[in-house]
Amino acid sequence: MAKGWNRQSETRSRTRGAKVKVKTARGRKNSSTRWLQRQLNDPYVAEAQRLGYRSRAAFKLKELNERFGFLKGANRVVDLGCAPGGWLQVLMETVKPNTQVLGIDLQEVEPVQGAKIWVMDFLSADAEQRLMNELDGPADVVLSDMANSATGHKETDHIRTMALCEAALDFALKVLAKDGSFVAKVIQGGSDSELMNRMKTHFKTVKHAKPPSSRQDSKEWFVVAQGFKGLKSEN
Predict the structure, then answer these.
(1) What pLDDT does residue 180 have?
(2) Which domains does the chain have, with CATH numbers?
(3) Residues 228 and 178: beta-carbon distance below 8 Å
(4) What are phi and psi of 48, to 5 degrees?
(5) Is 72 a known active-site residue?
(6) Residue 95: exposed, middle, or buried by beta-carbon count in 10 A (0-12, 13-18, 19+)?
(7) Which residue among 185, 200, 210, 229 is the active-site one?
(8) How many CB atoms lie within 10 A of CB 153?
């Protein structure tokens, strides 16, 4: 296991106990019952509640940063798809004082002290320019946890999530400072080679990672691109 990624065993041992079984209630679908049972028996859900995080996803950012260290020394960080705010909570715990943190989401997000949150459609025509105008300077880190609502059709879900990742990368290439980092959620599949090649053109290192807190049965991965070289021609 990679250095700094031993949180999984620690979290599981801390919350080990009898497994909770959920009975199917009238009006509740079997899939909903399975989801509820998984939530009740998920050690990361319990640990998130204990620590006051809004979602178990907070541990994904913590673990990724422990491994890659992309938040160290950051002056400006943009969090795309920030609802419900777990990543913003981790950011405000981790970054240095006075770091500018800007979160964007389609949904209303409960305030996180120290972070600025915008409710907006990142894909709208004026979104990129508004965000760049808001920043005090080039961003050191662009994060994207954006994903479309699952349709149940694997190919469709993969294509839509990858399209969001591509849009986030387009933004990152315009706003990142030299040596900046781009971290985004991707869905395992066979059509992301072009996206990876684009990143390799503009970043010194590009790696896939699946943090321990990401469920093993999930197709979710993260791509971590570090050492932004600057915007160059892709032709």
Answers:
(1) 98
(2) 7-51 (no CATH), 58-228 (3.40.50.150)
(3) yes
(4) -65, -40
(5) no
(6) buried
(7) 185
(8) 10
